[in-house]
Amino acid sequence: MKFSEELLKEICEYLGSNLQEPPCQIIREYMRVCPNCEIYIDKIKRTIEIYHVADQCEPLPEDLNKKIFACLKLDDLSPDCQ
Amino acid sequence: MEENQQLEELEIVRRAQKGDRQALSQLVTRYSSRIYHLGLRLTGSRQDAEDIVQDTFLIMVKKIGQFQGKSSFYTWLYRIAMNVGLRRLKAKPQQYEHISIDGPNFDKLSTEAMREWPKFDYSIVNDRNFRQKLDQLIAELPPIYRTVFILRDLHELSTEDTSKILQISPSNTKIRLMRARNFLKERLEQLIEAGILV
Question: A53–B29: do the CB atoms touch at under 8 Å?
Fold first, then answer.
C-alpha cells in the first residue's frame, strides 16, 4: 500500500507528537492494514523509554547543590548546612 | 505543571525578585537536577553539565528581575540553560561526524517486512558503559535535533514550550523530533542486532 500525501503529512505530524495520545482517525484506520507501522511506533516508544530510564539512573554529583549554593553565596541556606 | 503549582512557583519567583534568599534557594533546589540532566544529555560530559548548572543559576540570579511572567518560569529558566549549554557545545571541537538525519522511510514501511524488537532487559541501563553508548548515539545527533529530543522526550515538555525555548515554530519542533526519534531508533537497532541490548 502506498502512502498518500495527506496520510504522509498526518503520520509525520503524529510521529513528532505525544505518542501516548490516540493517533488521529486517519492513522488509526491505516494502522489496521499496516502491521509495520505498529512495529515502527513500538520501536520509537521503546527508544524514548530506554533513554528515559537511563536518564533516571544517572546519579547527581553528591555535592552539586552545595557547590551551587556556595557559588550563589547562599551557603547558609544549603540543605547540607541544616 | 498544574495550575496551582504554577501559581505557587510564581509566588516563589516574586519573592526571589524582591531579594528573598530563601526563595532563590528553593528555585535552585527545585531545578538543579533537571538542569544537570539537560546539560549532561546535551554535552555528554558530567563536568560540562555541572558548569551549565552553575552558569544557569548565576544568570538566573542576575536576571530574575527581568522575568515578567509572560511565559512560565521553567520555560524561562530552560531557555537560559539551553543557551548556556549550546554556547558551551559550540566552543568544543566536535567529537563525532554528523551525518544526514532523515525521517522514516515510508516506502520501506509499506513494502518490506519488519521484524519486532525482542523484549529488553531495562536493567542494562544501570551499567555505566551502556549509558555511555547511549550518550555516544545522542552525541551523533546535530544539536538542532538533540535539543528537541531532550526537551520533548526526556524532560517531557510540550511542543509549545519546546518551541518557545528553542525559538522555532511548533511544526519545526515536530519535524525535528520525528527525525531525532527515527535516528536514535535506527542506532539502537544496530545495538540490538549486535546483541548488546537484549
Answer: no
